[in-house]
Specification:
alpha/beta, 11 strands, TIM Barrel, 32% helix, eleven-stranded mixed sheet
């Protein structure tokens, strides 16, 4: 079979549920308040094995909160042991403990940690939980076990004044920071000029990746990345260049976070051979032709 053209990232949503109720949450494009769904390890393994001879470069685990699915660790370990793919996982860390962190430290995982606030009060308002101390404790454990991780912060209208404390927190601890505009609020894109101006003043190097990410670096190599989402501008070329297919917990496939599922044919994986799974992924990617 021919190469899968330009797609290179598989985002694996291992579950559609989360213990946070963040005000900015778009639930990774999944239907909110839907019946609880968990991707099984067996289905995941079938798909990874089917894609091993394709140009796939990267597996990014997400959710919901991926560690609510008890199979997520096994999925990460399988990719680590059986592929050369880059491995990432977005998490709020609530369900990490020292044993799980120890297991993750034996893999090449990089964690992208949701970091909504630097104070308990703000954290409670944004997430509707009281897990701020758990988050801080787990950041220390991740450092202790030398796991690569960075912070993700979603920028909303009401929290703009707090962005400076978020940046200071990351700088003081030398933690990579990713800033993301609120996908549910079109006004959030108008905050970026003020953010850009601030970052231009405090950091040295600026780089545009041409796929929606703009990066600032210090001379000590600390970095802040702003994700200037193509979704706000309907910039299909940038989105396509990012080259991501999304595997949902029910094994449906999706290329656009703002669109409904584009394929439900992989639900009965046990009936499919390797080539058919490849063909389905190819067809879904080929069907991604506009926003």
């Amino acid at each position: 079979m021919d190469d899968l053209n330009f797609w290179k990232i598989l985002r694996v949503l291992t579950t559609n549920i989360c213990n946070y109720r963040c005000v900015f949450c778009h639930n990774e494009g999944q239907i909110k308040n839907a019946t609880k769904q968990m991707l099984s390890f067996e289905n995941f393994k079938l798909i990874i094995n089917a894609l091993k001879d394709t140009p796939l470069k990267e597996i990014q685990f997400s959710g919901g909160e991926p560690f609510l699915n008890p199979d997520t660790l096994q999925m990460i370990q399988y990719v680590d042991e059986n592929t050369n793919y880059e491995i990432g996982c977005a998490t709020n860390t609530t369900f990490l403990d020292e044993n799980l962190i120890l297991q993750l430290s034996k893999t090449r995982i990089k964690l992208n940690i949701q970091f909504p606030a630097t104070t308990q009060d703000d954290f409670n308002k944004i997430t509707k939980t009281e897990n701020f101390e758990i988050l801080l404790k787990n950041l220390q454990l991740l450092k202790q076990y030398k796991i690569k991780f960075g912070l993700n912060h979603c920028i909303t209208d009401f929290d703009f004044d707090r962005i400076f404390s978020i940046i200071e927190f990351a700088i003081e601890r030398d933690l990579p920071l990713k800033l993301l505009p609120d996908m549910k609020n079109d006004n959030s894109i108008f905050l970026k000029e003020k953010i850009f101006s601030f970052l231009d003043k405090i950091l040295d190097l600026k780089e545009d990746s041409q796929n929606g990410a703009i990066k600032w670096k210090s001379k000590s190599n600390f970095q802040v990345k702003y994700i200037d989402s193509p979704c706000f501008y309907k910039d299909f070329e940038k989105c396509k260049n990012y080259a991501e297919i999304r595997l949902l917990p029910d094994c449906k496939l999706q290329t656009c976070i703002m669109k409904p599922y584009q394929c439900d044919e992989v639900e009965n994986l046990k009936n499919f051979d390797v080539n058919l799974i490849k063909i389905i992924f190819q067809q879904v990617w080929n069907s991604f032709i506009s926003c």
